[in-house]
């Protein structure tokens, strides 16, 4: 399944459904498709998303140090932060222009 985010202030963004639903829940939404965020709620959703993305960073800890296999997997995978960037840009544009954001 694909999910397309739309806003009058930015080009449409299409992403895979599993990633889109994860980002939606990070924004404080239910993750249901279709859906929308009213213009006055977009700043809070953007803030929640950026905070959640920052907390997702994989940091080596004493009980789980990074090893060569982890490093190789990280180089091949596209990070959630990278996948979220177009949506963050869309939300930022929506905040600047005070537009609703919808997805289907």
How many distinct helices? 4
- SS class: alpha+beta
Low-pLDDT segments, ≥5 res = none
Give the proportion of residues in helices. 40-55%
Instruction: Average the pLDDT over all residues and give the rounded result.
Output: 87
Distance between the termini: 10 Å
Q: What spatial order of strands do you see in the largest sheet? A: 2-1-4-3
Q: In angstroms, what is the radius of gyration? A: 15 Å
Overall structural domain count: 1
The global form is: globular
Order of helices and strands: EEHEHHHE
DSSP, total strands: 4
- Beta-strand portion reads 15-25%
Major pleated sheet: 4 strands, antiparallel
What topology does this entry show?
Elements: E1 2-7, E2 10-16, H1 17-26, E3 35-37, H2 42-55, H3 68-76, H4 80-97, E4 101-103
Helix pairs in contact: 2-4
Give structural attributes.
alpha+beta, 104 residues, four-stranded antiparallel beta sheet, 18% strand, 49% helix
Descriptive report:
The protein is α+β, with helices and mostly antiparallel strands and 104 residues long. The relative contact order is 0.27. The chain has one domain. The mean pLDDT is 87. The protein starts with a strand and ends with a strand. The chain has helices spanning 17-26, 42-55, 68-76, 80-97, and strands at residues 2-7, 10-16, 35-37, 101-103.
């Amino acid at each position: 399944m694909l999910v397309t985010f739309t806003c009058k202030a930015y080009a449409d963004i299409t992403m895979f459904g599993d990633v889109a639903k994860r980002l939606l829940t990070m924004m404080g939404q239910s993750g249901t498709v279709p859906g929308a965020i009213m213009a006055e709620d977009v700043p809070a959703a953007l803030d929640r998303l950026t905070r959640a993305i920052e907390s997702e960073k994989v940091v080596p800890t004493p009980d789980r140090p990074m090893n060569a296999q982890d490093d190789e997997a990280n180089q091949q995978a596209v990070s959630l932060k990278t996948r979220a960037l177009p949506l963050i840009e869309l939300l930022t544009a929506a905040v600047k222009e005070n537009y609703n954001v919808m997805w289907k």
